[in-house]
Amino acid sequence: MSKVMSSAATILLAATLLQAGSLNDHSAIHAQETEALDPRQHPLSDAERAEIKQTWDDKISELTKKLATKGDDLSALSQRGDAYFFRGHFAASLRDYQKMCEVSPDVEPGHWRLGLVQYYAGEFETSTKFFDRFFKTDDVDREGGLWKYLAQAKGEGPEKAKAGLLKYTKFDREPMPTVYRLFEGTITPEELLKTVDEKKLAENERQKRLFYIELYIGLWLDAHKQPQDALPHFRAATANKWPRDAGYGPNWMWHVARVHYELLAAKK
């Protein structure tokens, strides 16, 4: 059977097998789709991608004009930093975020986007140290610990990153505590995906968990020097519609998935 199959055919195959009892959870369907789809086939249409590019190019142009007359406008710097990142211009994004911290130093401790952009700009040691400090301001959100691991893994290797993994004891939203187990080494990517089907979840919650699980499996695999294995997971996260409509934070992380996917796909 061909490795490349149309989306419609893939869905039909999954539905047929599900009806026949051969598939009884998302993990099996995901496996079928992963095998059938070419991971280099972008989940967004050419028109959607062109619209995204134009939207953020226009936003950068608009904010650049505003900053030309008021260079210390925190909101404009924040928005342009985001727009630059969404366009894959990491150095420019980093400059705007750093400028925000110069204008208002109290912004820096909780400025998680700064730590992420340091990672994408290749400043792994700086990003690692940032998330160490971030932990002192937020010892609940495990995403900070995940990004510390990712930055340290890129800079010093996965073993050092695992040894330096931050310890969280307080309640955090799912699926973050379960995702954290992957980085601790107590669960495999395959087992992590299966956790989505262990409970009966509303579809919105299910898609939310799937998005973060696919994203962080992709990031973990890439940090472990398995970029081609990571590619289908970034693709799945990019194809997930939940984060695009779920608010600022999830939408921002959707762009992380999309940008990282496009970087890896371009390399392949």
Task: Give a topology summary.
Blueprint: H1 7-20, H2 26-36, H3 46-69, H4 74-86, H5 90-103, H6 112-120, H7 124-137, H8 142-156, H9 158-163, H10 176-184, H11 189-194, H12 203-223, H13 227-239, H14 248-267
What low-confidence regions span 5 or more consecutive residues with pLDDT below 50?
1-29, 31-35
Percent in strands: under 5%
The helix content is over 70%
Q: How do the helices and strands follow one another from N- to C-terminus? A: HHHHHHHHHHHHHH
Describe the sheet with the most strands.
Answer: none
Report the total helices.
14
Subunit arrangement of the protein = single chain
Overall mean confidence score, pLDDT: 89
Task: Describe this entry's structure for a reader.
- There is one protein chain.
- By secondary structure, the protein is mostly helical.
- Helix content is 71%, strand content 0%.
- Among the domains are: 38 residues, no CATH class; 96 residues, no CATH class.
- The chain is globular and about 55 Å long.
- The N terminus is likely disordered.
Key descriptive features of the protein:
0% strand, mainly alpha, globular, 268 residues
What's the gist of this structure?
This protein has 268 residues and is mostly helical. Among the domains are: 1-38, no CATH class; 173-268, no CATH class.
